[in-house]
Amino acid sequence: MIMNVKNLLSHKNKALLRELIITDFKLRYQGSALGYMWSLFRPLFLFGILLFVFGFMLKVGSTMPHYKEYLLLGIVFWSFFAEATNNGLRAIVDRGDLIRKINFPKFIVVVSGTVSALINFGISLVVVFIFMLFSGIELRSVALLLPILVVELYIFSLAISFLLSALYVKYRDISYVWELLMQAAFYATPILYPLSLVKDKSLLLSKLLLLNPMAQIIQDARYILITPKTDTLIGLTHNWLLVLVPVSLVILVIIYATYYFRKNSKTFAEDI
User: Fold this and answer.
1) What letter does residue 64 receive in the DSSP assignment?
2) CA distance 156 to 210
3) Alpha-carbon distance 10 to 14, whole Å?
4) pLDDT band with cut points at 50, 70 and 90 for residue 3
5) Residue 162 to residues 66, 152, 257: CA-CA distances in angstroms?
6) Beta carbons of 109 and 89 less than 8 angstroms apart
7) Minimal CA–CA distance to 225: which of 163, 97, 138?
């Protein structure tokens, strides 16, 4: 998609991509009694724990309507980002035998891992919509903008995956570095807590948090799906130029990740 659209759309590469996605699903849940249901249970289990601790014990969001839906939607979006980038990070190394035996565009391996995560994300979104239906939240026409946010999220995740996969071939410590960064980013993104809590303490800090593409995507998704009272970057700044900052960051990541992956892909077979 990012690397070379013509190559990706060729019949041979489409068939290879399809087989890699199918194989990834089969291997991931092989021998599991619940199989594909784990793709739903993991985010729901995390949601249950965090809701109990932060919602009922610590009373975070107690004055906020639809906090449960806020939390669930944030977890689903973040879970996709985490799964896609973790799959992408190890994609080249895990497919080392295939890369050494067959000559094909290496980016297809990374794409297959992110598409697998995207399928799980789609299933999880269905659960979110069902949850919203039973919670009495009415879908507004602005919800039609959701695919735009999903595309932004997927492209950002895919670009990060390309960069991580190329780095991991040479530097295996990158997996531990990324794990630490993800932990920090999870708490720096308004997933567990409403952004209004940050805004009450520091308006500037709340604006800075929303310059993070993941925070921008999650808050915009909450705005269009749950309530228009959600704090968004345009709502806090009233400045369309600042709204372009997260999108610009995504574009910069795409450009650099594409360059770095292309530069190093020629030697993947030797470096793995």
Assistant:
1) S
2) 15
3) 6
4) very low
5) 36, 15, 6
6) no
7) 138
Distances (CA, A) of 76 to 93, 118, 124: 27, 11, 7
30 pLDDT more than 90? no
Cβ atoms within 10 Å, residue 102: 10
Residues in the chain: 272
Contact 222, 74 (CB under 8 A): yes
Joined together, the tokens standing for residue 220 give 């915009």
Structural domain including 237 reads 5-271
* Segment holding 230, helix H or strand E: none
Tokens standing for 108? Answer: 């297809």
pLDDT, tens digit, 9 for 90 and up, residues 136-195: 888 899 999 999 999 999 999 999 999 999 999 999 999 999 999 999 999 999 998 989
Query: 60-90, pLDDT tens digit by residue?
Result: 766 777 888 999 999 999 999 999 999 999 9
Q: Cα angle vertex 101, ends 98, 106, to 5°? A: 55
Cα–chain center distance at 61: 24
- CA-to-CA distance for 92 and 166, rounded, in angstroms? 8
The total domain count for the chain is 1
Rounded CA separation 169/272 (Å): 6
Compute the distance between CA of residue 42 and CA of residue 63 in angstroms, rounded to an integer: 27
Provide CB contacts within 8 A for 31, sequence distance 6+: none
Of 225, 73, 263, 39, give the one whose Cα is nearest residue 139.
225
